[in-house]
Amino acid sequence: MPNPDLDSGRYEIAPYTNRLGLASDVISSCLLAFSVFSASVVIVALFKLDNKNKLRSRTLLGLFTAHLWSGAIFLGFILASLAGHAPKSGSSTCQVSAFLVQSAMWCQYLFTVAVATVSYAILLHPLSPFTIKLERHWYLLYLTIYFVSLGLSALQTGMYQAVYIGGFCFNKSESNLLDELSGCIPRAIVLFIIIALYWKITWFLRRHRTLSMTSTLFRRRKSKCLTGTAGLAIPAAPQVEELASAKGASPWDALYIPGLSEALMLSKAEEQTLEYRLPLFWFEACPSEKRPSLSGSLDISLPSGESTSTVPSSTQGVHYVESDSSRTLAEKASVPSLLSETSSIDSLDSPPPKASCNPYDAGPDYNRGGPNTNPKAVSLQSQRESYETLHNLLMRKAALLFMLFPLTYTILTIISLARVIDDYAAPHPSPVMHAISRWTLFLQGPLDALTYGVIAFKIKKDVGKAIRSRWL
């Protein structure tokens, strides 16, 4: 068994009775107080969101609750040490301290992975059974993370003795290098997972900037039999990943991603405006089959033989379904006429067909209650630029946001690797490296508050301002 009195000096920056150790604890206390404050601010801001009950907002709330919990635990034990009540290595108080600290750190790791997984699911697989079940049973995600975190922390507490390391306790083995690796490897795994998921999302959003549905996409899909009064065969709904791989898209048919509003934390009014102006085209595979809504809350049902179209018969073509589940526009006509119209679009520079399937080609002044009374009010070029500008803004801002999310764990992993190298190369580890490592750990909450909070809300504000300036 390790000697606690000797081993404690290997991990702490300096004894808290020294001037350097006292200064270290004071700086740590200030950083932890800032961590608690920043996590609290983000939690309050999340509670004020219109979509606070959405899956991603709930997961973000769990992440910053873990930051708040971690910061409060660290701060409490460090303040107790400064007051002269430092726990002794190997004591029951030190064991409890180590258990609480390690469980909070595991919660941070797991909630970070959960946020990335949820973001990936709602953007690339919004209608998958996994996403829908996760939205309905979101509390199981919380319970799983807490159960795993407490279990791993209890395992560490049972395997190793708790050692006081200056301000708080931690479970340590006899090998210093093994201890450093046990802290570095989980961070590296978390970093690898979130970079893989966020890179996939960023790639999808960048591809999506020039993406829309064209006749090329229609011709590639195999039609499924659709029985109805007209006896037509309508192509099945394209999957999101198939849309991402489509080429030759027409920019005047801007495509709306269902989970984009949730990822950008937009208000309900802004979300409804996007769903109205940047619609998602999809086809009903069966006219009597109920599909989950794109928001995951309501079902869309299109009965057989009924047409709820508010578009004149001269522009009839494909099914057009709004994702806010408030109205459904259905246009029925022969498939050959649809293909003859859409096949005329061979390049981005070609003009849209005269009988367009998109009711919004009438211009931004299109009314839900009927067709535009003045179809020549807005030119095709101006409406095309309007759709392109907002669509590209959404994709660019969202891609930038997801690229910044791995920032915290990139810094943590780099510092952990540097500490592993320092401990392996030097017989006596550098107190400076230990100080940087400790303070980086304490800054994990503020760094996440910067990316998930400050920058995310700034992008939310910019996107909302762009939407309101155009249509609200």
Order of helices and strands: HHHHHHEEHHEEHHHEEEEHHHHH
Return the structural class: mainly alpha
CATH superfamily of the largest domain: Rhodopsin 7-helix transmembrane proteins
Spatial order of the strands forming the largest sheet: 1-2
Organism: Hydnum rufescens UP504
Protein name: G-protein coupled receptors family 2 profile 2 domain-containing protein
Subcellular location: Membrane
GO molecular function, one term: G protein-coupled receptor activity
In short:
This protein is mostly helical and 472 residues long.
Question: How would you describe this protein?
Answer:
The chain has 472 residues and is mainly alpha-helical. It has two domains: 4-196 and 408-440, Rhodopsin 7-helix transmembrane proteins (Rhopdopsin 7-helix transmembrane proteins, Up-down Bundle), CATH 1.20.1070.10; 215-389, no CATH class. Helix content is 59%, strand content 6%. The chain has helices at 4-11, 19-47, 55-82, 92-124, 129-136, 138-159, 176-208, 215-220, 240-245, 260-264, 268-277, 335-342, 380-404, 407-425, 431-442, 444-471, and strands at 161-164, 169-172, 223-225, 233-235, 290-292, 299-301, 319-321, 328-330. The strands form four sheets. The protein has a two-stranded antiparallel sheet. The longest helix has 33 residues, at 92-124. The chain is elongated, with a radius of gyration of 28 Å. It comes from Hydnum rufescens UP504. Residues 294-377 are annotated as: Disordered. This is G-protein coupled receptors family 2 profile 2 domain-containing protein. One of its GO terms (biological process) is adenylate cyclase-activating G protein-coupled receptor signaling pathway. It is found in: Membrane.
